[in-house]
Design goal:
single chain; 101 residues; mainly beta; 6-stranded antiparallel sheet; 3-stranded antiparallel sheet; 0% helix
């Protein structure tokens, strides 16, 4: 997968199309984005005296529905790989040829 935790992405498909945020978790082929795809989760009561609750949590989105935001142009871009002079593999934004940290 070309996306990593901390990358700023935009949702390109689905009910949350157009929303932007940072990736907080990377799962196998899904990502959790901060403040995007909020769902209500019902929690059952624990013990005899506990009360249940309804929490709002961020649900994962499939990686094919998000794109990285180019650091220079601030628009959605694809990612390509290249090697620096030390032979280390680096990610590069296709729109601006800018290195992605």
């Amino acid at each position: 997968m070309k996306l990593k935790t901390g990358d700023k992405v935009v949702v390109i498909a689905g009910a949350n199309k157009g929303k932007e945020g940072k990736i907080t978790h990377v799962l196998e082929n899904r990502v959790v984005i901060e403040g995007v795809n909020i769902v209500k989760k019902h929690i059952k009561p624990k013990n005899n005296n506990g009360t249940g609750e309804i929490r709002e949590v961020e649900a994962p989105i499939h990686v094919s529905n998000v794109m990285l935001i180019d650091p220079k142009t601030k628009k959605a871009t694809k990612i390509k790989y290249d090697f620096d002079k030390n032979g280390k593999k680096i990610r590069i934004a296709k729109k601006s040829n800018e290195k992605i940290d």
